[in-house]
Amino acid sequence: MPNEPRFSIVTCTWNSAATLGDTLASLASQTFRDFEHIVVDGGSRDGTLDMLAAYAHDAPGNRRILHDIGGGISRAMNRGIEAARGEIVAHLHGDDYYAGPDVLARVARHFDDTGAAWVIGKIQVLRDGVLAQPYPMQPFSYQAYAAGQTSIPHPAVFVRRACFDQVGGFDPRLRYAMDIDLWLRLARHAPPAQLDATLAVFREHAGSISSANKLRAREEEFRVRRRHASQAPLAFLVYCLRYARRMRMLRAQQHIAAGNSS
Predict the structure, then answer these.
(1) Contact call for residues 42 and 139 (beta carbons, < 8 A)
(2) Is the backbone of residue 238 left (phi > 0), alpha (psi -120 to 50) or beta?
(3) In whole angstroms, what is the distance from residue 181 CA to residue 83 CA?
(4) Which pLDDT tens digit goes with each residue over 107-149?
(5) Per-residue pLDDT for 212 more than 70?
(6) CB 38 within 8 Å of CB 9
(7) What span, in angstroms and rounded, lies between the C-alpha atoms of 97 and 104?
(8) What is the C-alpha to C-alpha distance for residues 95 and 70, in angstroms, rounded to an integer?
C-alpha cells in the first residue's frame, strides 16, 4: 500500500472552466510535492470536465476526479474529505488559487513547528481583476470569533484529517455558513495555529454564493452562531449587535438598488 500523502487538496467545481486553470496552475507550481488533489465536480457542462480529464491523465495516481456529486457545496466538500488519504486536508475551489509556489511548504513547516490540529492563514480578494491588500491577522480567540470580530478565510484553512472524525464535517443543511459552523466546532476542540502569511487568493464575482445572496447568507450565519451561543454567551450578544447593524445596512442598500432599477 503506498504511503499516505501529507496533504489532500480538495477542489469543488461546477462550470469552472473560466477560472480553473489558475487553480490547477497554482498546485502544479508548488515546491512541496507530497500531496494529492481530489476534484469534486457537481455536473459541469462547460469545458471543466475536459480540462480535468487532461489534468488527471498527467498524474493519475495523485489526481482523482469525483463526477456528478450533487446535493450542494457542503456535500461536495464532505465527499472530498471522505476520499482524502492525506494527513492534512484543505479546500481550494475552482474559483481560487494559492498565492505562491511555497504555500504548502510553509504550511507543512508550521504544522511541524506547532503540532497544531489545524492551521489558518490569510487570503487576498481578487475583485474585478484587482487584488485587495490582505487584512492584518488578529490574534485568535474563540470569543473573538464567536463575536464575529475576527474571520477565518476558508481557502487558507488546513485541517488534520483526524479532526473530522472528532467534530464531523460540513453540515449539508447549510448553504452559506457551513464553514463558520465547522470552525466553531473545531475551535472548541483545539484553537488553530495562525500563520501570518497570505496563502490563497479568493476570487469574488457576481456568481459567488455569498456575494449573490448577502441577506440570506447573513441570516443563516445568525442561526449558526445562535447554535453555538451557549459556548460564549457574551460574545454572541456582541455578535447580535453587529448583526443588527449589518442587516440594516444591507436592507438599505437593497432598497436603494431597487429604487435605481425601477
Answers:
(1) no
(2) alpha
(3) 22
(4) 999 999 999 999 999 999 999 899 999 989 999 999 999 999 9
(5) no
(6) yes
(7) 12
(8) 18
Q: Where are the domains of the chain?
A: 7-209
Q: Which runs of E-coded beta strand occur in the chain? A: 7-13, 35-41, 63-66, 88-91, 97-98, 118-127, 130-131, 157-160, 193-204
Q: Please name which of 24, 232, 70 lies closest in space to residue 143, comparing C-alpha atoms.
A: 232
**CATH code for 7-209?**
3.90.550.10
Cα distance between residue 161 and residue 164, in whole Å? 6
pLDDT at 169 over 60: yes
107, three cell numbers: 504550511
pTM of the entire structure? 0.92
Contact by Cβ (8 Å): 19, 94: yes
pLDDT value of residue 262: 58
Kind and range of the H or E element at 133? none
Strand-pairing partners, residue 98, are 200
- DSSP codes joined into one string, 53-76: HHHHHHSTTTEEEE----S-HHHH
Q: How many CB atoms lie within 10 A of CB 198?
A: 20
- The cell numbers describing 66, all together, are 469525483
Name the DSSP letter for residue 235. Answer: H
- CA pair distance 256, 249, nearest whole angstrom: 11
